[in-house]
């Protein structure tokens, strides 16, 4: 009974305690809601009631209740203190200096001499009708005469400034587009040279080319070409030169050396033996072949030369109805055979060329 085995054994086991983050430990009642917390730190509102009245009211609040007669009597006592306010000091107007009668008369005289300005506005219906009413005929005639005189003066000035210049074009917008020749410095220099008797030098773009005039080509553009396609490069060069002049809408005289032997003789007399086509002549000046013409066209000088030469121009390509722009037609006498019968014998036709062709009468 008293053995060791019968003794009570105490267990050394700790009691279970939940962690601090457990829901069982969390006390929701200990949280203070922000919307339930009263903030007493708000600033006091200032009242607009005067201080004497507030003192009386505070006195009535601390003391026992008062009757209406006592309250009205206290308010009547406060009336003199509220009405007795300090007036605001207003600046006194500046005192004018003493003026003598002579000075007053002088100022009145100056006011009379000042011009009276007419007001643009109107105050009565009669004034408005007088402004809207048409002017009399005399005043209208005066204004019209002044306008015509000013226009005449402008026209005279314009004609004087246009001496030796191109006409001025007036666009629809109302502005005036003037050429460089109407520059005031250029016009002044021109007038000074005219007074001194010096001749006016005009730049001629054709002056740098050699004078070689083909027959009948003093006032036109003459092209020596060929229509034979035996040498393809020569034919292409002739076509290229003709296309350039067609793009400039220029009327030119094409002389085909393959159709007429006299054209080839003319070209040899002008340029020399062994020259190839195409060859260009403008107003009796020898321009050159295809390379020279293409270079002048790319630099813009060819267009200036044609404008200066004032050659004939045409819009679009217009081929001749008689020859189809070939410039030659078969001979009507020999029908292109170059032979005619004279007294039963065949002889050479004297009206056509070596190819049996004659110049187109329509082109001529």
UniProtKB/TrEMBL annotation:
One of its GO terms (biological process) is actin filament bundle assembly. Residues 221-287 form the Glutaredoxin domain. Residues 77-116 are annotated as: Disordered. GO terms for molecular function: actin filament binding. Pfam families: Glutaredoxin, GRXCR1-2_C. GO terms for cellular component: actin filament. Residues 97-107 have a biased composition (Polar residues). This is Glutaredoxin domain-containing protein. The lineage of its organism: Eukaryota, Viridiplantae, Streptophyta, Embryophyta, Tracheophyta.
